[in-house]
Amino acid sequence: MQNKHYNDRFKDAPWYESSSKENILVIGAGGIGSNALYCLSKTVPANYIITDFDKVEEYNIGTQFFTVNQKGFYKTEAVRDSMMAFGSLANITTLYKPFDNTMLMPITITGLDNMKTRKEVFEAWKTQDNRELLIDGRLSANFYEVYVVQKGQEEEYEKTLFNDDEIEDAPCTFKQTAYMAMMIGARITQILVNYLTNKYQNEDALIVPKMVKEYSEPFYFEVL
Length: 224
Known about the structure:
Blueprint lengths: L15 H4 L3 E5 L3 H13 L3 E5 L23 H11 L5 E5 L11 E5 L3 H11 L7 E7 L3 E8 L3 H5 L19 H24 L9 E5 L4 E4 L1
Parallel strand pairs: 1-2, 1-4, 2-3, 4-5
Antiparallel strand pairs: 5-6, 6-7, 7-8
C-alpha cells in the first residue's frame, strides 16, 4: 500500500482485512476487466492475477480504462500502471498470454468477448476441488449481464452457455460504451464484496445473486 490513509473511509468493512489473503484471477483486461479492476483494486485489497494477450488499440481508449499514452502497451500492463496511479490497495500480477487451466484460482472473474473461452474457463474451473466463485461478465453497448456461480451451482450456469455463431454480431461501431463498462465493473465488485462478507462472517447475510442483468435505454434491471 502506498499510503496508509487511502482506506480510511472503509478499512473496518467486514471484507477488508481478510480479503488481502485472497488470490483472484481476472481473465480479460478490456472493456469489462479494466473497468472492474478500477473498482476491485480500490475496494478489495486482494492479490489479483490478470491475464490478457491483447495490446491497447486506439479504439479501446474510448470505452476502456486506458489513457492515450498507453496505446501499444499490453492491456494488463496498462491496467496495472493505471491502478497504481489511482491508488490501488491491491497487489497486481500481470500475464501476457491467453487463458490456460494452470492459471485457475478458487475465485475467478471473466471479462471475455467470446463464448468459446468462457466455456473453456468454466469447464476447467468446475473440475477444481477448491473452487469457490466464478463471476462471468458479458457486455454490449447498451446492456450487461453478470452470471455468478458458486460451488454446487454449475449445472444451472451451464444452461447460459451457447456457441458464438448462435448470436448476431453487433456492428463494430456500436459494440461498447464507457458508461455500461463502468456499470458492469461496479456490479462485479459489489457481488465479490457480498460474497467475501458472507465468507468471512460465516453466514449468508448478504445476497450473492446468480444473475444480474441491466438494459440502459428502458432502465430495465433484473436480479435472480
